[in-house]
Design goal:
The complex is a heterotrimer of chains A (about 130), B (about 160) and C (about 80).
Chain A lengths: L16 E5 L2 E9 L4 H4 L11 H16 L3 E11 L8 E10 L5 E8 L5 E11 L5
Antiparallel strand pairs in A: 1-2, 2-4, 3-6, 4-5, 5-6
Chain B lengths: L3 H7 L11 E6 L3 E7 L23 H18 L7 E13 L8 E12 L2 E10 L2 E15 L18
Antiparallel strand pairs in B: 1-2, 2-4, 3-6, 4-5, 5-6
Chain C lengths: L10 H12 L13 H5 L3 H15 L5 H4 L5 H11 L2
Classes of the chains: A alpha+beta (about 130), B alpha+beta (about 160), C mainly alpha (about 80).
Chain lengths: ~130, ~160, ~80
């Protein structure tokens, strides 16, 4: 399907659940790790694991869905990766998406594996994609 | 300093996730400049609609970070920070900011510096430039090395048995 | 308000500040003699982060064998003190 921006992989095989709360929009995305099979073929050939950068991009994609806007990553304030996600597993992402006055969007996210172990925690800032050179 | 065949020999990633071309400089004990050319033929640009303006060709943030991370792995390897049979993994990132976009035709220059290391843990900082633009600044990346065997599944991933609220 | 708060100079306070920062807490929430791993569910990655920061800020190398038991601020401080004789 043609796009207007470069894409790496599609985290959104299943649309996320969203819920507006006073603190911001809570988003839950369940993503089969196998969405990234093409990338994992090279990461790594003998022991495929979900690249951390794709986990970060899944958070971005989920935030785009919740905001109804095309957002790009502006900064990663803090990210930690505690345990790897392997083929066949499922990543459960829980996000809190908070628009800021500047037009930027703050996102706090936690990712867990199907076995409940914490895979990642992220605090990132997104912004609307630039539309000029 | 390292051509692509030598870079490929030191990294475990393979296409489509091999995102580093050369090492231009290595200043022992802990500084390195590595390059990656961005080209319109990359997989990430394959599905772009005809008529998309150059803004649509901004190199994806995920791949830019992965490429920087591979420059970190090269420094780890050249500086011999961990057992060569183990794999350096990025476990932490702090204060990373994306600046100007990178586009096809750019050659990314990753400048990586080792801040601190001890045991099998290293902390790195740096930035990525393309021509006269800063594309990425990296406050801190924490890397640990792990044996490859620890990354293999030992028990099958189990699906959830109850629906979380 | 203590106006010297921003000039943390005693080692225990500095270790406490590192542990707090890694665990995303304020220093006051951390009792220096309490097992922070247990109390705050710190994981092995938190410990790696703490060790890296402590080693960097105090310019020491902490011996792996003794790190296993170091689960309080004071234990970390004592490890640092032993390396800087």
């Amino acid at each position: 399907m043609p796009t207007r921006r470069a894409t790496v992989f599609d985290a959104m095989g299943r649309p996320p659940r969203t819920e507006k709360t006073p603190e911001g929009t809570r988003v839950t995305l369940r993503m089969p790790v196998d969405q990234a099979t093409a990338q994992m073929a090279g990461h790594y050939p003998d022991f495929p694991i979900l690249p951390g950068v794709l986990l970060i991009d899944s958070v971005r994609q989920a935030a785009c869905f919740a905001s109804g806007a095309e957002l790009q990553l502006r900064s990663i304030d803090r990210a930690r990766f505690a345990s790897p996600l392997l083929p066949g597993d499922e990543l459960e992402l829980s996000l809190l998406v908070t628009p800021e006055a500047s037009g930027r969007v703050g996102v706090h996210a936690r990712g867990a594996r199907a076995d409940g172990r914490m895979a990642a925690e992220l605090s990132v800032t997104l912004e609307p994609v630039t539309s000029h050179a | 300093m390292l051509d692509h065949s030598q870079v490929r020999g030191r990294l475990r990633q393979r296409p489509p996730m091999l995102l580093l071309d050369t090492v231009r400089e290595f200043s022992p004990p802990g500084a390195l400049v590595a390059t990656k050319a961005v080209t319109g033929g990359e997989a990430c640009y394959r599905d772009l609609e005809d008529g998309t303006g150059i803004d649509g060709f901004a190199y994806p943030s995920a791949l830019l970070l992965e490429s920087f991370g591979q420059a970190v792995s090269l420094l780890w390897s050249l500086a011999e920070l961990g057992p060569p049979e183990e794999i350096p993994l990025m476990v932490g990132i702090r204060d990373l900011t994306y600046a100007a976009p990178a586009i096809p035709g750019d050659v990314l220059e990753h400048h990586v510096r080792l801040n601190h290391h001890s045991g099998a843990v290293g902390e790195f900082t740096g930035e990525t430039r393309a021509a006269d633009r800063t594309v990425l600044t990296v406050g801190s990346v924490l890397v640990v090395s792990r044996p490859a065997a620890s990354l293999l599944a030992t028990t099958p991933a189990t699906a959830r048995t109850k629906d979380g609220g | 308000m203590n106006d010297t708060d921003d000039r943390i100079s005693d080692p225990i306070s500095r270790v406490r500040a590192i542990v707090a920062e890694v665990l995303a807490l304020s220093p006051e929430e951390i009792d220096p003699t309490e097992d922070f791993v247990n109390r705050f569910q710190a994981d092995s990655l938190n410990l790696i982060e703490i060790v890296a920061q402590v080693e960097k800020q105090f310019q020491v190398v902490l011996p792996q064998s003794e790190l296993r038991q170091a689960h309080t601020v004071t234990a970390f401080y004592e490890l640092v003190a032993r390396q800087t004789v």
